[in-house]
Write a structure and sequence with these properties.
alpha/beta; Spore Coat Polysaccharide Biosynthesis Protein SpsA, Chain A; seven-stranded mixed sheet; two-stranded antiparallel ribbon; 8 helices; globular
Length: 255
């Protein structure tokens, strides 16, 4: 099975980083968040990736073109034009990078990579800016057991603010950033090829017309994820993730 990663957006909410690089290359723990996402899939033996590039896509190409140099010890013999790689930590990944356009919407990006998928096969899809300890193996099994076109991972993120319970003038209960009651789209999908019939072209937003139509037709199921999930939307999110890695308590690092 292949995993498709949407990595073409401009990341305007984390402009401090994304003005210099594509959002999936923003680093947490010294490695791009894209790398963390791929490591999660690789933990579940999915090592064949299609990355939908767009904004500053050449930087993503450069990252993978020079990946061996970034993750290994290297000796450059300049006089003899020779490079020796030591302690090779290369991954067993096959990565297809597809230019899906600068302004193409999420649905359009998915449509553009159809030809790179195995015909008739299900595939995974996720965004290039969020991590979680999602059990990909269970997610795939859940999808296959429901005979629908799309499975979306449903998560309950923490609320943005603490909750107060007040009686009169007194605070009688205080909860700091409880987990929200509502489920939201956690971005880890398993999809069947029939979803392409719902995407018209580059201007199609995946989360709107295609998903809404499939929901009305009963073709979407939700896989509830009770564990950790967090998006990289702001510098505060980046700091939070960095702190988890520093304290060796990052739940998504299963490898």
């Amino acid at each position: 099975m292949k995993a498709v990663i949407l990595a073409g957006g401009m990341g305007t909410r984390i402009i401090e980083e994304s003005q210099l690089k594509p959002k999936p290359l923003v680093e947490i723990g010294g490695r791009p968040i894209l790398w963390h996402i791929m490591k999660l899939y690789s933990f579940y033996n999915i090592n064949d990736f299609i990355v939908c590039c767009g904004y500053k896509g050449n930087m993503i190409r450069d990252f993978f073109a020079n990946y061996n140099l970034y993750v290994s010890d290297v000796t450059f013999d300049l006089a003899n034009k020779k490079v020796t790689v030591h302690r090779n930590n290369i991954e067993t990944w096959k990565v297809t990078l597809v230019d899906t356009g600068l302004k193409t919407m999420t649905g359009g990006r998915i449509k553009r990579i159809k030809g790179y998928l195995d015909e008739g096969e299900d595939f995974c899809l996720t965004y290039g800016d969020g991590v979680g300890d999602v059990n990909i193996e269970e997610l795939i099994s859940f999808h296959r057991s429901h005979n629908c076109l799309a499975t979306v991972t449903a998560v309950q993120p923490p609320g943005r603010f603490g909750r107060l319970k007040i009686q009169g003038d007194k605070v009688v209960d205080f909860k700091e950033k409880e987990r929200g009651r509502d489920y939201i789209n956690g971005g880890f999908f398993v999809l069947s090829p029939g979803i392409f019939d719902y995407i018209e072209g580059d201007d199609t937003v995946w989360e709107r017309d295609p998903m809404e139509r499939m929901v009305l037709e009963g073709q979407v199921v939700a896989y509830p994820h009770k564990g950790f999930w967090h998006p990289l939307d702001t510098m505060s999110d980046k700091s939070y993730m960095e702190d988890l890695i520093t304290s060796e308590s990052a739940p998504w690092i299963l490898w």
